[in-house]
Fold:
Amino acid sequence: MTTTSTSGGSPAGTLTPAQAAALAYVRAAATAERSAALATIARHLADADVGHRSEQLIAAVERARITVNFHPDRLCADGRAVAAALAEDGVYRSQFVTGISAGGLTAYPGGDRDRWERRMFGGAYQQTGVTPADRPIYGGLNLLDHADGACPRFGSCHLRLRPEVLARVTFCVGDSYLGPDVLGTIDAFEVVLAGLLAEVARTGVCLGRAETDVACLTRTLLDVSRPAATVGRALDDYVETQVHGTLDLASDVEELVVDPSFAGTATGTTLEFVARRYGFSLRWHPGFVLPVDEVDAEFRGPAIPVLAARLHREFGRPDAPVDAALIGRGAVSLVTEPQRWADRGPTADTLQHLKQLWHVLVRFGTAYPG
Structure:
């Protein structure tokens, strides 16, 4: 099979024909909408020098990093923990390969994810000969440099990718399960910027930050001296990215950012090994903790505090709060000893509740004790 090289320049930056076709499809559609996008940007910026301002904003976008959030302790379909698979394989794989997801489990031919990708990429990944390993990797564009990554709902840790990867990425505003009408590439990003500005103007929410507006967003993006990153808690508000081609740890990752609940654990040790083995730094973000009796019963429903109490009783310490590692121990137990959870009903329901408990932790948790 022939390949097409991207401007990333590394062996991992080669694309199969299907991957190249997906990028080309999005680029062509975004380029065709560029004039309309610039008009939208002009309306929202209300700036006489809108052309220069747009260029400044695009330059700010190019400085941002893509982050890929993941739970390191979850078990892949082959029985390995995600952290162990990263250590052994040296690549980050899509849910079509791993069989797990912190979102919906629909990554199979004919599933929802497959249908979304058909629509998004013009059927490129439904061609004969395309394998699960060819599918894109999902992450987010961390425009505001949130310490917990662009999309913390999908994992407590994240890979921070090198800027060269941007050349083989497609973007959309919000999650792709919503069926976005417009996607872009880094060299045809105006349509995504226009969509982001329109969304901020409509909702008053900017990438997880409430009570903001277009002027606030543009000032923040253009402020290269803004304070060090804090957690963004952006559960539902992000610019989604789809990385086409292999995500190779050694050539595509510049940093691994880890939840502090894994410090001193086997998972944490494995992640430290991953960083050393593949040559990038490891950093601990502030994390999220919540006393078990403060787990909210409204945000994700009344079943969540009950589950939190059970996890704390069976897998935690009396004086310890709920954190990412505790939820992970429950998620592993659900796979390895399902009979333990039979009284809660279908496994799929408990899995969903574990995800929702993580969302509660991100939304309401405080920083891990330093």
Observations:
- Residues 347-364 form the longest helix (18 residues).
